[in-house]
Amino acid sequence: MILAYHVIFGAYGFWLPNDPRGSWSQFIRSYELYRSGPATKVNTRRSVAGSHHDRTARQRAKAALQYPPVMFTGHQALSIGRGFAWRTERSGFAIHACSVLPDHVHLVVGRHRLAIEQMENLLKGSASYQLRVDGRHPLSNRAQPDGSLPSPWAQGLWKVFLDSEQRVREAIEYVQQNPVKAGYAPQNWSFVTPFGNKTRPFRAVAKRRQRTVH
Questions:
Q1: Which residues are registered as beta bridge partners of 160?
Q2: pTM of whole model > 0.70?
Q3: pLDDT tens, 80-130?
Q4: Residues 163 and 1: beta-carbon distance below 8 Å
């Protein structure tokens, strides 16, 4: 029985569909990206972030992106956390661990009535909204004619199904240590619920977003 998910999703440009380490994609929409190689679909649930690969080819592919790759600052990470906090309260998610790195996010998310892909989309959307409200959207200078902004997130996610308490706790430990291993301070988010606590019930009525930093 699935108890939770270890979820990883990237900022725009973090993980391309033809990344030599593997990707979630089965095809590539952009011809410019396709010239750097076909999609490198993998089926493993194990992270391949540390796999040996051609870094020059990876950087060459990134140069063909429509927008510059997104790298979140510390203040932008705070806005992302505020967006996650609002969505967690609004939808009754149980997030047991969270780390926001400059180019990707790690989460341990408890099982919910929604599919994990739906939860991911809602979390990304709330974070993007909060970035814009706070005047910190990394692609704010790329507004479309209708005023909309490109998503600061890469498409898709990497998910690992956690089917035992031990695996959930191991994933939580991994996520908590992720910023430290990358040379950053530990992260403590107010919306993180210790594993074992009951998930708050889904709330049908939206609450006004809080403007205080979480």
A1: 6
A2: yes
A3: 999 999 999 999 999 999 999 999 999 999 999 999 999 999 999 999 999
A4: yes
